[in-house]
Amino acid sequence: MAAKPMTTADVSRLLGRVAFGATAADLDQWTGKAYADLVDQLLQPAVLPAPAPLPDDAIRVALQQNAYQDFTLARRWWLERMRTTPFPLVERMTLLWHSHFATGVRYPPTIGQLVRQNQTLRANALGSLRTMVEQLTIDPAMLYWLNGVENAVPQPNENYAREFFELFTLGKHPQVYSERDIREAARAFTGWIVDGNDLATFVAGRHDTKTKKVLGRNVANLGDTEYKTLVDVALAQPVAARFFAWRMVANLAYVPNTPNLLKSKDALLNKVAASLRASDFNVATALRTLLLADEFRYAPPTRQLVRQPVEAVVHAAKALGVAFDDGSFVWLLERMGQSLFNPVNVGGWPVGRDWVTPVTAVARYDTGLTFSSFASKAPNNVVAPLPAADDLAAWTRRLGLAGLGTNTKNAVSSYLRSARKASALDRQYGVLTLLLSSPEWVVF
Amino acid sequence: VALTRRRLIQAAGGAAAAHALLPAVGRVGEAFGKTSAHPGAAARNRLVVIHLNGGNDGLNTVIPTAGKAYDVYRQVRPALGYRPSQTLPMDLAADRAHHLGLNPKLTALHRLYRDGRVAVVQGVDYPDHSYSHFTSGDIWHSGEPGRAPSSGWLGRHLDRAGVRDGELRGVGIGYELPLMLRGNHLGGVPISSIAAMRFGDGVGAVVDARHDALALFGHHAAAEPLRRVAGIGARQAVDLVEVLAKVPPAKTTGSWFADAMLTGRTLLNLDLGVECLVLGPGGYDTHTDQRASHERLLADLDAGLEAFFLGTVGGKKTGAGPMSAALAARTVVMVISEFGRRIGENGAGAGAGTDHGAATPVLLVGPKGRIGAGLHGEHPSLGTTKLPADNLAMTVDLRRVYQSVLEQWLHDPDPLYARYQRLPGLFR
User: N or C: which end of chain B has fewer CB within 10 A?
Assistant: First the structure.
């Protein structure tokens, strides 16, 4: 079925879920083409030797080096990168891993450390999860965030060990590790600090050299490489691949209803998990499986994806050509509950319905107002003139949507009727604001 | 002139009429608690639950001050322990023999305690304790240990009460609806703050038309369930903004939590039908540097309780004034946390902290004469100086506390808890 040429709806939906949305140009370019070709194009960075540096890499490096750099600047930088990157799937997955390995600015971790961690997430975004987990275990931001720097003999701090199993590798559905495994793993992770140059350093005297027993395996003292054994031990558990597969399906397709991952009957989740296992946890391989699966491409209307606020905001910025030149959208995202580099808690951001509460609806509406005013006041920013207020087909195309449902069309028409005496600009403003709050925009 | 929803409501002379005229659009009156739509709402008791997110150190909240427990406490808490003279004594006549004191930062709570308005249930937990924030937090919210949580103990109450779509009976202060308020049917509604519940485009005919269209998204086809939820969220937003526009903006007290508590108090005062409020101040996961951070947290908790009940913060007026006698007679605040912390410290000196623990005290603050003032249940054992315990073990099952509150305060026991005996004397 993957060979079947794409409809506009296919293009809109695929890019809407995994690539910060389609632009009108994307719809023109890909409608009628092969679905698999677009998947290839999205996954391209995984097969290229190394993506060429982007113009904003200089900003990133400056942010990494400056511990107390402006928080807002870092957020704007990343949003702008999401908007302009030729590799949107890389940024989309970086965002996904940022939520999975959730770490927030607390001074420490500083914004510089967080941006450096962000680069680790990006470098492995489509790569090996094994490498990802290893690198994050001794990542300076993470060492501060989950108290790795306090984890030393004789009184280990078990904060990281617990979240390592629960949030990063195995989950709790079902819980396959015990409290004892956590305490033993904490001992294996002892010894790491962040030095004066902001680098992770192993201090042998802080490390517990006795043998530990974790998940039934004896872990002998290996000093500064012992943490890698722990990653092996965790990823060898059958539930590990399913846990990562759940994260990918829940963030890119729909929230699977599976109280017990080991007994899951969700076909898409099981395919992605099998792909992760077969590839030794290679993300690109698993993503290809996910994106090409019929369960993804032809998911029924009961299996849709609520987009995170960041995704919808970046999509609007792309479709309208509005750059993240100031902090307006950073603040609006905070009101919608999604501040980059500051996830709500160690468990990351929620998926699904929590993004469509009345609270987020008010902030989303205000975000639409702000886009409207940017789009109408800053013509230099706008890629093309806005459509006439009542040309709903042109609006739909402009926003990279495949179409609007009857109810949404009726709601917008009712507004246009009530506001028929308003200025043309006001009416355009109103339609755009409403469409950026519409169910078709929020849920893909 | 096209009639907007708002003008139609005004023209029709009230909410009930608007509902009759506009069944397809305006559920405002029915939905958001015009008093007329809620006979009896004003007379309901109110419950405010504060979940200290991260795992509050119960042992440094209600502190042993003498006897064997104190000997162990002093031994295992060299950096974090308080001397008896530093604590605020729990010296109601019936409590004296227990030799406990409140953390020195809880001065307002101590005043309320001496006034006979505070009950402390000791050693609350559930069987097969989990040390995970998420699992344990879910259990405290769902009140159903041992099974995957789908609803909250107050959400089920809202279900039984027959809460209607959009009715503002259970409110979570925050961006997300806490599990505690999720029903199997509808449950509660989250509100981040009153100030945030305003649209950026103000009022006027064109603006009203836009908001009316936004509310129309609430009729999205049921064939796309998540899009329908998104549409209903938009409609609820329009309704809520309209109701909350009547609330004057509050001055900040300088404490996020005290502000949130005053927001909660305003919602309770408005007579919108709000019955259950849930707040979740965070930061209690004190793995390191606990002395300074925990004192800051408890000072903030105390500021919130002081603002809520007394209208002051640190003895200074907030502009909100003391709670009305009518509201005070109908309001109970309950403070919980997903777990206490380990008995022993995990480091030394100022950097010392504590890891995830087990049983923890539950605090209830309410009207004098109704609240069973003082200590309830037994303090869990700290072990001996030779063999200190690692964790505080459960002496009271949390379901007994919940059932007491449901039965004796909200007058709606949960059939799930039929086997759990309520705590004698927690309410009078």
Answer: N
Decide if A337 touches B, using CB distance below 8 A: yes
Interacting residues of B412 by C-beta distance below 8 A, sequence separation 6+: B157, B160, B161, B406
In angstroms, the CA B217 to CA A414 distance is 11
Question: Do the beta carbons of residue B73 and residue B66 sit within 8 Å?
Answer: no
Spell out the alpha helix ranges (H) of A279-405. Answer: 283-292, 294-297, 309-320, 328-335, 358-377, 392-398
Helix (H, G, I), strand (E, B) or coil at B180: helix
User: Which residues share a beta bridge with A194?
Assistant: A200
Contacts of B205 in chain A (CB under 8 A): 418-419
Instruction: Say if the Cβ atoms of B230 and A430 lie within 8 Å.
Output: no
Is the Cβ–Cβ distance between A272 and A245 less than 8 Å? yes
Is the pLDDT at B415 greater than 90, yes or no?
yes
Joined tokens for residue A91 = 């940024």
CB B61 within 8 A of CB B298: yes
Model-level pTM greater than 0.90?
no
CA atoms within 13 A on the CB side of B357: 33
Chain centroid to CA A164: 19
Percent of chain A with pLDDT over 70: 97
Q: Cβ A335–B192 below 8 Å, yes or no?
A: yes
Copy the structure tokens of residue A281. 């946890």
Q: Is A194 on the interface with B (CB under 8 A)?
A: no
Q: What is the ipTM of this complex?
A: 0.96
> What CA–CA distance (Å, rounded) separates A70 from A327?
11
Q: What is the rounded CA–CA span in Å between residue A118 and residue A138? A: 14
- In which residue are the tokens 């499986």 written? A289
What's the rounded mean pLDDT across residues B397-425? 96
Residue A268 CA: distances (Å) to CA of A96, A247, A273, A320: 18, 12, 9, 34
The CA distances from residue B333 to B140, B189, B193, B264, B398, in Å, are 16, 19, 19, 11, 16
Give the contacts of B356 (CB within 8 A, at least 6 positions apart).
Answer: A158, A162, B55, B131, B132, B133, B339, B341, B342
Task: Answer whether A437 sits within 8 Å of B217, measured CB to CB.
Answer: yes
Tally of CA atoms within 13 A in the half-sphere of B137 that contains its CB: 19
Pick the closest to residue B324 from B308, B312, B313, B335 (CA basis).
Answer: B308
Q: Which residue has 């924030």 as its token pair?
A: B133
The neighbour count for residue B226, using CB atoms within 10 Å, is: 24
Query: Whose CA is closest to B273, among B38, B19, B30?
Result: B38
Contact A302, B225 (CB under 8 A): yes
Q: Hey, what amino acid is at B16?
A: A
Q: Which pair of tokens denotes residue A319?
A: 């479709």
Shortest CB distance from A358 goes to which of B135, B189, B345?
A: B189
**Prior bond of B39 cis (ω within 30°):** no
Single-letter code of the amino acid located at B235: R
Q: Using an 8 Å Cβ cutoff, are A336 and A291 in contact?
A: no
Cβ atoms of residues A203 and A289 within 8 Å:
no
Confidence tier at B27 by pLDDT (50, 70, 90):
very low
| Residue A202 DSSP code | E
> Which uninterrupted H or E stretch holds A214?
strand A212-214
Q: What is the 3-state secondary structure (H, E, C) of A119-180?
A: HHHHHCCCCEHHHHHHHHHCCHHHHHHCCHHHCCCCCCCCHHHHHHHHHHHCCCCCCCCCHH
End-to-end CA distance of chain A: 21
pLDDT tier, B38 (very low <50, low <70, confident <90, very high otherwise): low
Contact by Cβ (8 Å): A106, A346:
no
Shortest distance, CA B69 to any CA of chain A (angstroms): 23
Residue A144 to residue B32: CA distance in whole angstroms: 45
